[in-house]
Amino acid sequence: MADMKIGSIIELFGIINFLLVLFQVSSGLRIFKVPFTVHKKTGLLLLFTALIHGGLAVYFD
């Protein structure tokens, strides 16, 4: 039962990472025009969520 909950959390972080990558690419290519500070902060958020996602996947798999 605990594995199912961890799997759901890992999957959720994967979806969040995918959306953040799409936003980063779109804002980097200026499809979405956002200030550089927003692009920088979402890049850091992407880094942290990717580390959590990868760490959980490695630890619990």
Question: Would you kindly provide a written description of the structure presented here, covering whatever features stand out?
Answer:
- The chain has 61 residues and is an all-alpha fold.
- It is built from two helices and no strands.
- Helix 1 runs antiparallel to helix 2.
- The longest helix is centred in the first third of the chain and has 27 residues, at 2-28.
- The mean pLDDT is 93.
In short:
With about 60 residues, this protein is mostly helical.
Oligomer: single chain
- General form: elongated
Tally of helical segments: 2
Biggest sheet character = none
Can you tell me the number of structural domains?
1
Q: What fraction, in percent, of the residue positions are helical?
A: over 70%
Overall mean pLDDT stands at 93
**Spans of at least 5 consecutive residues with low confidence:** none
Strand content: under 5%
Distance between the termini: 14 Å
Q: Could you tell me the radius of gyration in angstroms?
A: 14 Å
Alpha-beta content class: mainly alpha
Instruction: Please provide the ordered H/E string of secondary-structure elements.
Output: HH
Number of E strands: 0
Task: List key phrases describing it.
single chain; 61 residues; mainly alpha; 85% helix
